[in-house]
Amino acid sequence: MESVLQGIALIVAAVVATIVVLTREPKRQIFCYMIYGLVLTLLFAVLQAPDVALSELAVGSVAIPFAILATLVRIEHGPK
C-alpha cells in the first residue's frame, strides 16, 4: 500500500512539474509553482522525510513564490 501511495505521489509531482514548465505567464507560473511546492511537500511526507517536507513547505511553497511575485509587481508598477 505504501509503495502505491509513493508511486501516485511521484506521478502527481511529475504532472504538476510539467504544468509549471508549460505555463507561460509569469504570475500564473508562480501560483503553479506554489501548488508544485505543496505536492512536493506531500511527496516528502509520503516518503517519510518530515524535515525535508517542512523545509519545502516553508521555502518552496511560501517564501520563494512570494518573493518572485513581489519582484514582478515591483517591476510592473515601478518603485513607490
In short:
The protein is an all-alpha fold and 80 residues long. The protein has helices at 2-22, 26-46, 50-77.
Describe the protein in words.
The longest helix is centred in the last third of the chain and has 28 residues, at about 50-75. By secondary structure, the chain is mainly alpha-helical. It has 3 helices and no strands. The relative contact order is 0.13. The protein has one domain (about 1-75).
List the helices and strands and how they pair.
Blueprint (H helix, E strand, L loop, with lengths): L1 H21 L3 H21 L3 H28 L3
Helix pairs in contact: 1-2, 2-3
Q: Rg to the nearest angstrom?
A: 15 Å
Low-pLDDT segments, ≥5 res: none
Let me know the average pLDDT: 92
Number of helices: 3
User: How does the overall form come out from the CA principal axes?
Assistant: elongated
Give a quick set of tags describing it:
80 residues; elongated; 88% helix
